[in-house]
Automatic annotation (TrEMBL), chain A:
ABC transmembrane type-1 domain location: 286-475
Family according to the record: Belongs to the binding-protein-dependent transport system permease family.
GO annotation, biological process: amino acid transport
Membrane topology listed for this record: Multi-pass membrane protein
Cell location: Cell membrane
Location (main, coarse): membrane
Top-rank taxon, per record: Bacteria
Record-given protein name: Glutamine ABC transporter substrate-binding protein
UniProtKB/TrEMBL annotation, chain B:
Family matches, as Pfam families: ABC_tran (PF00005)
Keyword Cell division part of the UniProt annotation: no
Single Gene Ontology MF annotation: ATP binding
Protein name (database record): Amino acid ABC transporter ATP-binding protein
Stored PANTHER family: AMINO ACID IMPORT ATP-BINDING PROTEIN, ARGININE TRANSPORT ATP-BINDING PROTEIN ARTM
SUPFAM superfamilies xref list: P-loop containing nucleoside triphosphate hydrolases (SSF52540)
Keyword vocabulary terms for this entry: ATP-binding, Nucleotide-binding, Transport
Classification via InterPro entries: AAA+_ATPase, ABC_ATPase_HisP-typ, ABC_transporter-like_ATP-bd, ABC_transporter-like_CS, MetN_ABC_transporter-like, P-loop_NTPase
Domain ABC transporter residue range list: 8-242
CDD domains hit by this protein: ABC_HisP_GlnQ
Keyword Transmembrane helix carried by entry: no
Amino acid sequence: MFKKGILISFLAMLSITTFVFAMGDNLVHADKPNYIISTDATYPPFDFQDKNNQYVGIDQDILKEISKRENFTYTLKPMSFNSAAQLVSNGQADGIIAGMVITEERKAVYDHSTPYYKTGVAWIVKKDSKIKSLKDLKGKTVALKTGTAASEYGKSLQAKYGFNVKYFNDTDTMYNDVAVGNSAATFEDMPVIQYAIKNGVKLKVMNADNPGNAGWYGFFVKKGENKALLSAFNRGFAAIKKDGTYDKIVAKYLGANQSTFTGAKKDNFSVLGILKANKSAFLKGLWQTIMLTFLGIILASIWGVVLGVMGVSQNKFVRGVSTTIIYIFRGLPLMVLAFFIYIGLPGVIGAKIPAFTAGVLTLVLNEGAYTGAFVRGGFEAVEVGQMEAARSLGLPYRTAMRRVIMPQGLKIMVPSFINQFIITLKDTSILSAIGLLELTQTGSLIVARNSQGFRVWAIVAIMYLIIITLLTWFSNWAQKKLQ
Amino acid sequence: MSEAQVKVHVDKVNKSYGENHVLRDISLDIAENEVVVMIGPSGSGKSTFLRMLNQLETPDNGTIIVDGYDISDKNTDINKVRENIGMVFQNFNLFNNYTVLENIMLAPVELKKLDKVAAEKKARELLETVGLSDKADMPVSSLSGGQKQRIAIARALAMTPDIMLFDEPTSALDPEMVGDVLDVMKNLAESGMTMIIVTHEMGFAKQVADRVVFFESGKIQESGTPDQVFDAPKNERLQEFLSKVTHA
């Protein structure tokens, strides 16, 4: 009965929190259709956050204009490009606008809109690089962004020019790898890199007049689905093209200088300025990290104790279940698990899983497995004589566990729990991969806009240290109380 | 010995750990109020035998009937049987997460034998019997070995058992502590408790035992009154064992 009670309360808590946090995502307007549109979180000038933490860019302005004219609303899901695309292909999102090139391969999986922007691939080196032609890349490393058409193009040249490839998940980190000299070159869509260089990224384009693999950007939906959305996009696009709105949007971003979107120099070139300009974004990110950590710690601890208790059960089958669960979820990298739950699972179960729920579930399964392992170890570390003495008095196994073994075992485990809490906090940063706007993702977005990697990451690092310090203090205080 | 008086009936019990055959065809009957002391060299199987009497070990085959319950039968509710068999361990095994008083009260309260008030009253009486009334609210870690063992005896007695098992109760004690524990056991024996004791305290065995059983190589080699066993041992191995023990 005892174990069952824990399990039920655990599931209840999970569903309540899921519900509460899913609410914000699903404010549906009854009169208009609402679509979930995924996008790349860091792809200026097409998709990025401005100084007010609003998603802007050529794609975003086009989408906003079209939604107004075609009378639909949408919920934007910004994340890494690859995840954003998969979200559509598995039905978690209805459409994607993310500077996505129309290719033959994509046509097999998606239906695309009228092409809306002509692009080509640039190859790019460090500003003061001595590399003159693609031939000079032989034996060197080239940075590519996973899943993009530009990276496909780069990859297609690999055999011919004999370079090595290193993959990145976001544009900014990829640029930076080239700018600091770790990678010799990168491939990127022409307008994207031109905008970045204009905004101070220390790179240069080697083929401005001769873009490779020229192609067109399109808006995509899953093949055979969301026909209404696709035709609305096409109608709306034709309208904004006709009345000049489209040209204005493009001119607005390609002709812009940095301060238009990223704020004044003083806001970006000092730690205080960055903090002030992004106060609300940092606070939101911090809050999200704290909520993830808090729920992650509580639910993973409960789940871990359940696994630990099962792990020392008298029943061989129950022990086996616990061992297997711990083995699987301790063995899976956190990011793989997050992708599996958020991107993989919905395609199979046919229901959408909000990112926050997926994040919490990932933490609970992963941290819970670690917790389960040390909880079982803690119970096993209690002298065998304690159990024998309890049983010899006539206490049933469960009573002996509950009154004698568990209290002693839990005391042994306190340092492991504190350790696991800190790990859980740090692991929340990995959930930025599924687009959760926690502290790390907040940092990525700000850096994507203002290219102030050192200052922004220093701020983020200090914020983590502060929470970890508070968490450690609290844990030590609790530990003292327990002893 | 009539049937009604038999508290423990063991018939042809065997136990092996892998290749190691620790008990070979052991049969033994113990009567109510009897004090049986089991002696023998380390590894002779006497502790394993004792632990079988409350199923801390299970026999490979054979029959064990304790207090009228066949505990070699899987359908017997072993917890019920154990309520009436107290056990005292070499390493005390007091519950580290409770105070002295809580250690004694835990089982009677959890098993609803007594309510809290009655259990506390009884626990305090038992503490007085073992001479440790002043330790009631101490954590067990603050006690000496001898004190711990007397608390362990009180804890077992709190369930008002019919039978008490002692597994080398003084082996882990400093010499000066042994006397106090043996005194408590002596009083218990005099009160008529059925006791089965594994010990190396030969003097105590002589004084208290109704019967002494000598284990060697997983077999009962000889058993009899203390006079028979200690003063006129017939078995060669017993003679050898006794000469070693008395020289030590």
